[in-house]
Amino acid sequence: MHPETENSSRFRFFLRIAKILSVLILLSTLFSCESVEFIPETVLREEFGFSHKNSWNEIEIRNSSPPKPYRTYGKIIIRSFANGRVPEYLVTELKKELYANHMDGVIFTGRGIVNVPPTLVQSGNGDGNTVAVGYVNNEMGVIEGVAYRYKDNFR
After folding, report:
1. How many domains, the chain?
2. What pTM was computed for the model?
C-alpha cells in the first residue's frame, strides 16, 4: 500500500467517526432539552446581598407553603421531555439558581404538558447528503413554582 493512500484512508475513517459522533451529540442534545428558569417579579433589592441559607444544599423544595411567614419574589419554570419527572441534576441546578438569587426555596404550584411545534432535525455531510434525521416529540413537561424568601424579622 502506498503511504499517500494509507493516510487518505485513515483520514476518511476518522472523518466518518467524527460525523457519526457529531450527529449523536446533536441528537442527544435535542432529545434531552431541559431547562430551569427563574423569572423575578420585580428587581431584586440591594438588601438581598445576603442569603438566609449557608449553602445551596439548604434550599427548600416544597409542594405546600412553608411554616414561617414568607414572600414570593418570582416564578420558577422547569421544562423537560422526561415525562414530568425532574432529574436530580436539574434539582441541583434549581437550588444553585435560587441560592445565587438569595432565595430560601421554591413551592411547586403545578405541572402539566404543553404542546410545542414538532421539530425535524437533519444532519448532513460536506457533500450535501443527509446523514441522520431526528424528530423531537411535540409534547413537553412543564413544572411551575414560585420562589420565596422568608421575611427577615421572623428568621
Report:
1. 1
2. 0.60
Structure confidence at residue 4 as a pLDDT band (50, 70, 90): low
Instruction: Compute, in degrees rounded to 10, the torsion defined by CA atoms 98, 99, 104, 107.
Output: 20
User: Checking phi first, is residue 37 left (phi over 0); if not, alpha (psi -120 to 50) or beta?
Assistant: beta
Return the residue matching grid coordinates 415525562.
83
Read off the pLDDT of residues 32-57 as tens digits, 9 standing for 90 and up: 567 788 888 876 665 566 778 889 99
Q: Dihedrals φ, ψ of 98, to 5°?
A: -65, -40
Residue range(s) defining the domain that contains residue 125? 3-154
Give the residue from 100, 96, 105, 102 showing the smallest Cα distance to 48.
102
- From the list 56, 50, 31, the residue with the least C-alpha distance to 106 is 56
Distances (CA, A) of 40 to 20, 45, 73, 97: 41, 11, 6, 12
> What was the pLDDT predicted at 155?
45
To which residue does cell 441522520 refer? 132
